[in-house]
Design goal:
It holds the Pfam family DUF4293. The structure is a single chain. The protein is α+β, with helices and mostly antiparallel strands. It has one domain: Butyryl-CoA Dehydrogenase, subunit A, domain 3 (Up-down Bundle). The chain is built from four helices and five strands; from the N terminus they run H-E-E-E-E-H-H-E-H. A five-stranded antiparallel β-sheet has the order 4-3-2-1-5. The protein is elongated. The mean pLDDT is 89.
């Protein structure tokens, strides 16, 4: 089960998606006012809020999508006896990771409008982790498919 390379890829995928919850995804600094806006998986907030600043925006959708994707990847590891189910879970995981990236884009767009429209924000490590997870999911599905082809060719020889 863990000896197969796709299980290692799926475990790394789960670790990448869990770490999205704990690292910043996007930030924007306004040099004129000294305000910094930070997007994490749970909130979009000012780093040093003054009186009159807007309240933090909850972004729990990012955290929910990332944690669901991690849970599916871990569950997919233990479905090693049924490769077709693993492939279906991999397709579902692909959709969840893309939805996570979409939610990150959406909330960073909201942040762009909240603070000095002329200055662009910068994407942090939390944004690139789902991209890494997409690559790991693609590799895992590729090796699952090759295992399935190997088993089918061995069945043909019997």
């Amino acid at each position: 089960m863990i000896q197969r390379i796709q299980s290692v890829f799926l475990l790394l995928l789960a670790l990448a998606m869990v770490s999205v919850v704990f690292v910043p995804i996007w930030s924007k600094l306004d040099p004129a006012s000294g305000q910094e806006l930070v997007l994490t998986a749970t909130k979009l907030t000012y780093a040093h809020a003054d009186a009159g600043m807007s309240v933090p925006t909850n972004t729990y959708a990012i955290a929910a999508l990332a944690l669901t994707s991690a849970a599916i990847a871990v569950f997919e590891i233990f479905q090693y006896r049924n490769r077709f189910t693993q492939l279906k879970l991999g397709a579902l995981n692909f959709l969840l990771i893309v939805a996570t990236l979409g939610a990150c884009f959406y909330y960073s767009g909201i942040g762009e409008r909240m603070l000095n429209i002329k200055m662009p924000g910068s994407y942090e490590a939390g944004f690139y982790l789902p991209t890494l997870a997409l690559l790991l999911n693609l590799l895992a599905n590729r090796f699952i498919r090759s295992d399935e082809r190997l088993v089918r060719s061995a069945d043909r020889l019997r």
